[in-house]
Design brief:
The complex is a heterotrimer of chains A (264), B (280) and C (288). By secondary structure, chain B is α/β, with parallel strands linked by helices. Chain B has 10 helices and 10 strands. In chain B, a hairpin with a 3-residue loop joins β4 (61-66) and β5. Chain C has 11 helices and 10 strands. Classes of the chains: A mainly alpha (264), B alpha/beta (280), C alpha/beta (288).
Chain lengths: 264, 280, 288
């Protein structure tokens, strides 16, 4: 259970892994926007090409990327069917009883499903090739300018990294409390609703209370170690923007321009 | 004349909703390069003392002065924390970073140390606590003893004048405890670090230069481990256990064995008994 | 309740490449009313072993018999509640399981889950709160208002309230100060004697094992390293040292003393009191 973090980081030495987290984040956000510009086979084709290149360069086995899609298969299928059965454009393919299927539906269904696939693959790629600390640092760096308008960028980044650090610890604690309560006769998996609710209470109350105690202890320790907020802090992890990062962004930009040209 | 690293002068403190004082008119000093062990039952005031020494709380009465010049008060606490580093009891609840080096770096980042200097200090302290092979390990893959050693490394990295260990071994298993006590002995000897360890572990206290005994918010005894843990001392009355050897010696005396010397270590008691038994 | 383990093993995730063998080939025989100590370092398989005693885990190899209840690798047992009632498990830092609004409610939680009527459960709570050394007025307080040591005692009372036939203790004194440790261990021992409770203690303290146990089982790397009566186990000093375990201090002292005196005798002193008497006898006999 401890390993169950969405699209967990797979440490491989590939060019995609070596890209600066900020470049990858920018590419991901841009890609998400660019996807909405595609509307024909050529434009979707370009996007697919870009995504496939990224995946193969990352040396991450395709199975891991597909695993990230697993929870969404149903949604994709549902959306596809929705379009197939409701879209009335194009020539009629099936006209049977209350089922009307037109070519427009198939095409749109296909394109929209494609969109889902592309969006999820690219976000999964980010988490597969970038270490959570790097993602947090990257986000902090990118959002830094927003400090000027009062956004607590540093604090939010610190909250994220501390939460990440405690996820395995909290999972262990949850397991431990569940075992202790099971030993006192609690059944977490079956039984009438009232009992199951009480079972959850016997798990959540200690968990919450400890988390508060933990937070208090942590705050004291952080203060003792000189933490006064973001002002005056230096950074241990420094990422250097390299030529390859610029090139990647340029490639994405080119892809976008081509899409603008080939779209309907 | 040895420098006075800490001077606690007539300090009293009461927690906001408490019935009585946690600390009462406490006075003592810690000198440079000393290792002081503060012992006492839970509730004796030793944790309160730890918080006061770090400026986490401020005394109601009296004062605490660090390095003969820095008085702990509201506007100096951040300077105090540059000089006084603390390691707490719970190995998980002080581990901030996502990996070992990130955690050690946390303190250095807070104090605005430059990246280059950070790299040097981190490498040094990892060596001192023997955790060089664990740089990128995440906390949940470390044992309690290892996490505490990382905490000690993080404390040493800011190059403090004083290291305080607040029950740092209480939650550890015997191996972890041993590792941490070894680490403290090591850094006390090689770095000549001034150490205050607050503990109820007799085995830890025995290695100190001086022991301070607290009870009910007061200092009731101070002296070398040998003085404090000798037989006939009223430690049991205030709820502290004596070392094995001392307890055994007391029992033997009670039963009429004419022991003369004061013993902390098994070996010396064994020797005296042999002399007694073989003499006849 | 008689407990037996026959060639018990437990492997985590046996079908995946991450398979990890936490326990293997463990044979155990615990007679009713025995005080049984389990010693081993972190990672020796102790906690996996413990969790099999009340069915939190079921063996992937071998067979376990706890009274009439059977846990086997061949068939997964479904109805575990009767077993959980009979075997009370006190985890390390048990105060972490407290959650109810009042101490009384928390102590009653276990028994009520096992079908005990509320008024009887409350009676048990009243008796037990005194047994664990706390005063009755604590019953109406919230567990979270108490000190760490008090919370621990409340958690222990909560397990005792289930009136188990077997009491399993996983390092019950961890984190307490020496006096707190001593009083808790004495309480368990009294309970063991008065009620004839089979008591299984997992501990790091060789001294506690020496003082209280009828039988000692040393685990190492997921399997039995040594087992037997205390003096038998402690006679294997070299082997214990090879896995980083020392003799209890009284025995160590006796050994050193006898060595220095040049006497070749069996070492028999499991506690400080026995040692003190032994030395006094030596002294008196020399006199004659």
């Amino acid at each position: 259970m401890k390993e169950l973090i969405l699209g967990k980081y797979i440490p491989i030495d590939s060019i995609i892994h070596r890209l600066d987290a900020r470049a990858k984040l920018l590419m991901m956000f841009s890609f998400i926007l660019i996807v909405f510009f595609a509307n024909n086979l050529f434009s979707y084709g370009m996007l697919l090409l870009f995504a496939m290149c990224a995946i193969s360069l990352s040396k991450v086995p395709l199975t891991y990327v597909l695993k990230g899609l697993k929870p969404l298969w149903f949604l994709i299928l549902f959306t596809f069917c929705l379009h197939v059965f409701t879209n009335k454009e194009g020539s009629t393919l099936v006209n049977f009883w209350w089922i009307h299927i037109h070519t427009g539906g198939i095409v749109q269904g296909f394109y929209i499903s494609m969109r889902f696939l592309l969006l999820v693959s690219i976000t999964t790629m980010l988490t597969l090739t970038t270490n959570p600390i790097e993602i947090t640092d990257g986000l902090e760096s990118l959002f830094n300018p927003l400090k000027k308008i009062g956004l607590p960028v540093h604090e939010m980044a610190l909250m994220m990294s501390i939460s990440l650090r405690f996820i395995p610890t909290l999972m262990e604690e949850t397991e431990k409390i569940m075992k202790a309560q099971a030993s006192r006769g609690v059944d977490f998996s079956s039984g009438p609703l009232k009992e199951r609710l009480q079972a959850i209470v016997s798990l959540l109350v200690p968990l919450f209370i400890h988390s508060f105690k933990r937070a208090e202890d942590l705050a004291i320790a952080m203060e003792a170690r000189g933490y006064q907020g973001g002002e005056g802090r230096t950074k241990f992890r420094i990422s250097k923007w390299e030529m390859r990062d610029t090139i990647s962004l340029v490639l994405l930009l080119l892809t976008f321009l081509i899409i603008l040209k080939v779209r309907a | 004349m040895q420098k006075e690293i800490v001077k606690v002068n007539k300090v009293s403190y009461k927690y906001p909703n408490a019935h009585s004082n946690a600390l009462n008119d406490l006075t003592f000093s810690v000198y440079e390069e000393e290792w002081i062990a503060i012992v006492g039952r839970n509730g004796s005031g030793k944790s309160t003392l730890a918080k006061l020494l770090n400026g986490l709380i401020l005394p109601d009465e009296g004062e605490i002065v660090i390095q003969e010049e820095l008085r702990i008060q509201e506007d100096t606490v951040w300077d105090v924390r540059k000089l006084v580093a603390m390691v707490f009891q719970n190995p998980d609840n002080q581990f901030v970073g996502t990996t070992v080096i990130d955690d050690i770096a946390f303190g250095l980042e807070n104090h605005g140390i430059e990246k280059q200097e950070m790299d040097i200090r981190i490498a040094n302290v990892l060596k001192i606590v023997n955790m060089e092979k664990f740089t990128l390990h995440e906390p949940h893959s470390l044992s309690g003893g290892q996490k505490q050693r990382v905490a000690i490394a993080g404390a040493l990295a800011i190059q403090p004048s004083l290291l305080i260990l607040d029950e740092a071994t209480s939650m550890l298993d015997p191996i972890g405890r041993k590792e941490v006590i070894e680490t403290i002995r090591n850094l006390h000897k090689s770095l000549k670090m001034t150490v205050i360890s607050i503990t109820h572990d007799i085995e830890e206290a025995i290695h100190a230069d001086r022991v301070v005994v607290m009870h009910d918010g007061r200092l009731i005894q101070t002296g070398t481990p040998s003085d404090i843990f000798k037989r006939n001392n009223s430690l049991e009355e205030i709820g502290l256990a004596s070392p094995f050897t001392t307890q055994l010696a007391s029992k033997l005396l009670e039963k009429g064995i004419p022991l003369h010397d004061n013993h902390l270590m098994q070996e010396s008691l064994v020797n005296e008994l042999c002399t007694l038994l073989l003499k006849k | 309740m008689h407990i037996t383990f026959e060639k018990v093993g437990y492997t985590y995730q046996s079908k995946s490449p991450f398979a990890f063998r936490a326990l293997h080939d463990v044979d155990v025989e615990i007679a009713e009313g025995t005080y049984y100590a389990v010693i081993g370092h972190t990672g020796s398989g102790k906690s996996t072993f413990l969790q099999h005693l009340n069915g939190l885990m079921q063996p992937t190899a071998g067979k376990i018999q706890v009274g009439d209840f059977e846990l086997s690798s061949l068939k997964k047992a479904k109805q575990l509640k009767p077993l959980r009632k009979k075997v009370g498990l006190v985890f390390q830092f048990p105060e972490q399981q407290l959650f109810e609004e009042t101490v009384e409610k928390d102590i009653c939680f276990g028994p009520i889950n096992f079908g005990v009527k509320e008024d009887i459960a409350r009676e048990r709570a009243r008796d037990l709160i005194k047994l664990v050394g706390l005063s009755e007025d604590i019953l109406t307080k919230s567990p979270f208002e108490l000190s760490g040591g008090q919370m621990r005692r409340v958690a222990i009372a909560g397990v005792l309230a289930m009136e188990p036939e077997v009491l399993v203790l996983d390092e019950p004194t961890a984190g307490l100060d020496p006096i707190g440790q001593r009083s808790l261990m004495e309480m368990f021992y009294q309970l063991h004697k008065e009620k004839g409770l089979t008591t299984i203690l997992v501990t790091h303290s060789m001294e506690d094992a020496a003082r209280y146990a009828d039988y000692i089982h040393v685990l190492q790397q997921g399997t039995t390293f040594l087992q037997g009566k205390p003096l038998e186990v402690f006679s294997r000093e070299k082997e214990l040292a090879s896995i980083g375990l020392q003799l209890p201090m009284a025995l160590q002292f006796q050994k050193n003393l006898l060595k220095k005196l040049g006497r070749d005798e069996e070492t028999t002193c499991l506690t400080d009191e026995q040692l003190a008497n032994y030395i006094v006898n030596l002294y008196r006999e020399e006199k004659i």
